[in-house]
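Methods — Computational structure assignment.
A single polypeptide chain was analysed. Its primary sequence is given first, followed by the predicted tertiary structure written as C-alpha cells.
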Amino acid sequence: MARKRKISLSEEELVRALRNREKVAAEALYDMYSASLFGVISRIVTDAAEAEDVLQETFVKIWNSFASYSPDKGRLFTWMVNIARNLAIDKIRSRDFKNQSKNQDLENTVNSIDEQRNTAYKPELLGIKELVETLKPEQKSILDLVYFKGYTHVEAADELGIPLGTIKTRLRMAIIQLRKYFN
C-alpha cells in the first residue's frame, strides 16, 4: 500500500483554508500538528488512549471555534497548544477521569496480584457464600444472580419475574445486612 504524502501549508494558507472550512485544512492541520499537540497532551494526560481522545477533542474544538482565532493576538500554533493544554487539564480535573483512574488502578492492581500469585476469585474461600446463606431467600437469589453470575439488575428482574424497583430494594437490603458482618 502506497504511503500518503503529508500535506504541508504555510501558516497563512492554513488559516485561509480553515476560515473557508476546506477539507484540505483539516488534513493539513492533522498532518502538520498532530505529533506536537499529542506531545503536549500526553505530558498532562499520561494514559495514551485518553490522550488520543483529548487530541481528537482538540482538533474538533479548533475546527469549530476557529472564528475566535485572531492572527493579531498570536501564532496559530500557540493558539492550538493552548486549546490542547486546556482540554488536557480539563480531562484530568474531571470527576469521571479521577473516578476512572481510581477504579482502573484498583482493578489493575487486583489483576496484577492475581496474575503474580496465580490466584482466582473464589467467594466460597472468603466465607462470603456462607454469609449470603444467612440472607432471606428472596435477597439471596438476587445477590446470586447479580454478584456471582454477573446479571444486570434488568436481567435479574426478567429472570425472577419481579419489578426492577423490587430487585434494587432487595439488593440494597441484602448489602446492608452483609455490611453488618464487616463493621
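Note: The chain has a mean pLDDT of 80.
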